[in-house]
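#lab-general

N.A. 3:47 PM
ok so I finally got the sequence cleaned up, no stray characters, all 119 residues accounted for. can someone with queue access submit it? mine expired

B.Y. 3:52 PM
send it over

N.A. 3:53 PM
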Amino acid sequence: MRVVVHSAGVQDRDGAALVFDKIHASFPWLELVWADSGYNAHQVDATVAKVPALRIEIVKRSDGMKGFVLLPRRWVVERTFSWFGRNRRLAKDWENLAETVRAFVALACIQIALRRLAR
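B.Y. 4:20 PM
back already:
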């Protein structure tokens, strides 16, 4: 839907404002966003509050879980990252510019879409 690439020095909760602003501009009908516990912060809540139709649901891992446990909706993100990792330029953090990474993510998404259309 939308990709925002920033330096590793920016926390997920701080970068969420950039993502939510861009998503809402392109997809005003979007109502629900699933996120992991890294987005459970007042900065994210303040950003989501600016968009009345949007709400965020944090997918939390319970304290009693040990080892690998499949969390609801979390697998979608991990699967997508796995698909991106099939591309040599995205398998490791080689790029110096965030704009270059964003371009390669866009190319990876195009490749995924073309494979689905070719079936």
